[in-house]
Amino acid sequence: MKFWVSFDDGTSGQVDLSNSLKGSMFEPLNNPQFFARLAVDTELETVVWPNGADLAPEFLKEHLIQQVG
Fold it and tell me: Entry's Pfam families (predicted)?
């Protein structure tokens, strides 16, 4: 489960969440069709899904840095 993110500081890249979607809120995101329903919530400034799941921008950035790193 991958998508591209871009941050205000210029950091950007593809985040791979394949091994990070655990727990009852995130399990539905393992379904590619449901995962594809992600949207950007401009108020929260992060990605969200219809079931209420969201990921903190800090988590996404740290995850991206670890993958590149």
Answer: DUF2442 (PF10387)
DSSP states of 23-50: STTTGGGGSHHHHTT-EEETTTTEEE-T
d(CA 2, CA 26): 14
Q: What pTM was computed for the model?
A: 0.82
In tens digits, what is the pLDDT along the chain, a chain of 69 residues?
Answer: 899 999 999 999 999 998 888 999 999 999 999 999 999 999 988 899 999 999 999 999 998 988 876
Query: For strand 46-48 and strand 12-16, is the pairing parallel, antiparallel, or unpaired?
Result: unpaired
**For position 57, which CATH number holds?**
3.30.2020
What is the domain range of residue 59?
2-68
Domain count, the chain: 1
